[in-house]
Amino acid sequence: MDIHNRPIQERIDWLFEIAQRYTAEFTSPDTYLARKRYLAIHPTDIIALKCMDGRINIPVATNTPPGIIQPFRNLGGMFNLGWPHLNEVLSHHVNDIVHTGRQILVLITYHFSKGDPHRGCAGFNYDTEAAIAHTHTIKEQVEYVFGQRHSTVYPIVCGFETDEDALILHGNDGGRLNLAELSPDKADSLPHWLASLYPDMPAQMREDLLPLLKGNLERIAQVRQLNRTLDIEHREWMICMGRGFDFLHAPNLALIIGPYSPNLADPIRKAASIILNNMQTGRIPDDGFLLLASAPYMEAGMDRARAEMKARFASEFTAQVIQTEFPALARKMHLRTTVLNWHTRALELTGN
C-alpha cells in the first residue's frame, strides 16, 4: 500500500500500528538476545549525527539491528557543540558509555543525491560542499571536547547518497571511500581501506565498523534492484519534534527535528515549508499532515513526568510556529503528543 496517498486519519492510524509492531519486535526474546549478542561481539558505541530528512536511516542502510546506532537529528545535520542542550545530552551519553569501559564512534553525516541536486539537502540549499565543510567543523568540535588522540571518542565524516543509500567515508588525510563504487565481492578489501583512512583508529573500533560497511554494500546491491522513483523524492507528510522516532523505517515519511538548537523555530519553518510544497505539488494529499512530538524517559515517576513536560512544550512550541508562519497549513495540522519508554521503545500517547 502506498501510504503517502491515503487519507490523513488512515496514515496516522497506520503510523501508530507501525510503532506498536516495532515495539513488539524490539522487545521480543529473539531481537533482545540478538542485540545483546551483537553488542558483546561489537562493543563500540555508535552515534550518528544526521539530518532531519527521513531518508537518512543509517540502521537500514547498514543492515544493523535496531537499538545499536544512537541517532541525533537536526535540519541539514547542522549541529554545534556549543548548544547547551546538545552539549549536555552528548556529554552525558559519552560518560555513561565510558563508565562501562566502551569506546564511542561518532558518524558525522551529510547527504546528497547523485541523480538530482534538488533531491539533496534543503537545509544547505542543496550545496553539498557547504554541508561537507560543516561536518568537518563538527568533527573539530568533537575532537576539542573529547580529545584529538581518538583513543575513546573517534569522530568521522560520513556522506550518505540517498539514491542508493550509499555511505562515503572521509579519511583523516583527505582520502575517501565511496561504497557505491565498491562491488559486494570486494568486501574483503574493507579492512585495508579502514587502515588507510583511519590509521589511528583502535583495532576494536575498526572491527565494529566493518559490519556496517559490509551491510551497506549489501544494501546498495538491494536498492539497485528496486524502483525507487517515488522513494527518493520528498513526500514527507509528518513533522516529528523531539527524540524517539527509530520506528520510522520507511523512506520519506517524516521530517525529524531534534530538540537541540537554541533556535528551534528555523528548522520548524523549513520542515513546514517542505510539507506545504509536498501538498502543493501533489506528492501528498492536501487533507492534512501530522505533527508528532516525543520525549524519551528511562524510569517511571519523575523521569516520565519530565518527559511529558518536554513533549508537551515541544508540541505547543512547534504548533505555535506553524500557526504563526503558515496559518493555512496549520488548519490542516493533526497533533499527537507522546513519550517513549526507552527500554521497550513503546510510544505512549499523553494527549491530543
Relevant terms:
352 residues, 11 strands, 5-stranded mixed β-sheet, globular, Beta-carbonic Anhydrase, Chain A, 2 domains, 60s Ribosomal Protein L30, Chain: A, alpha/beta, 6-stranded mixed β-sheet
Summarize the structure in words.
There is one protein chain. With 352 residues, the protein is α/β, with parallel strands linked by helices. It folds into two domains: 42-223, Beta-carbonic Anhydrase, Chain A, CATH 3.40.1050; 238-351, 60s Ribosomal Protein L30, Chain: A, CATH 3.30.1330.140. The protein is built from ten helices and eleven strands. A six-stranded mixed sheet has the order 2-1-3-4-5-6, sandwiched between helices. A five-stranded mixed sheet has the order 8-7-9-10-11, with helices on both faces. The protein is globular and about 55 Å long. The mean pLDDT is 91. Pfam families: CsoSCA_cat (PF20686).
